[in-house]
Design goal:
It contains 13 helices and no strands. It is mainly alpha-helical and 246 residues long. Helix 3 crosses helix 7. The longest helix has 37 residues. The chain is globular and about 65 Å long.
């Protein structure tokens, strides 16, 4: 018997077991294991949806700096909402506009100002700020990240099945941009060093790092810079000094 079986849950356990046996899941075990937060049957639905597309390449996420990236992201959010969560409403439109601000390096201060200005006046500024942070953490940085990871893993599987190995290995890691709240390569490198999104974006505007700097390049640049003289908020200065141990 399963380690999850008890005398108390015997009926529910057996019912669940029978339902699981009735599912027609054809996905590889590694896909199921890497997406444990999503029901296997819903992953299968998304797989069938993508596999049935006549132009699979056109379904891949696009780097935020490219044309139509927001349009593609919005469509992926809609499809994953329908297939993975069985949601068929317009909520994806709100998620898409919020995610677009986030991945396009919009400063959090500017996002807060937009949130307050777009409100109907019924919320206090503090409540609007709390709602924004809740949406960023629970929707963008959790749910959308999880859904995009599942989407990309299934897209990669289908491309491999079609013999498109190069395309399968070069899918844009959009979940990373959603998680970090940035798509600029140097900003991502700074965040990977342990700096916050706010500090990373502040540094991008204050120091000339060059294009596509690696984390090591960024660290070397910071070590050669007089940190206390950079025109960024003092809390960001302190964060950088802690990183450098000075």
């Amino acid at each position: 018997k399963s380690k999850y079986y008890t005398d108390e849950n015997e009926v529910e356990f057996n019912e669940t077991l029978e339902k699981c046996k009735s599912l027609n899941i054809t996905l590889p075990k590694e896909i199921l294991d890497s997406n444990r937060g999503i029901r296997p049957d819903r992953l299968q639905v998304l797989y069938e949806r993508l596999k049935g597309s006549p132009n699979i390449i056109d379904l891949a996420p696009i780097r935020p700096s490219q044309n139509d990236s927001n349009k593609r992201m919005k469509e992926i959010i809609r499809v994953t909402e329908e297939c993975l969560e069985e949601k068929y409403n317009d909520s994806y439109k709100f998620y898409a506009q919020l995610a677009a601000q986030w991945v396009h390096d919009t400063p959090i201060k500017q996002m807060i100002e937009r949130k307050i200005s777009w409100g109907d006046g019924s919320n206090t500024p503090m409540k609007s700020i709390r709602e924004l942070y809740n949406d960023l953490n629970n929707i963008v940085r959790f749910k959308l990240v999880k859904n995009f990871m599942a989407y990309n893993s299934l897209l990669s599987l289908i491309l491999m099945e079609n013999g498109l190995e190069e395309e399968a290995n070069s899918i844009e890691p959009f979940h990373l941009y959603l998680e970090c709240g940035a798509s600029d390569p140097t900003a991502l490198s700074l965040i990977s060093l342990g700096l916050s999104r706010t500090t990373a974006l502040s540094l991008i505007g204050a120091i000339n790092f060059g294009d596509g700097e690696t984390p090591e390049d960024c660290l070397n640049k910071l070590r050669k810079t007089k940190i206390s003289l950079i025109d960024i908020p003092s809390i960001c200065i302190k964060e950088i000094q802690n990183l450098l141990g000075i």
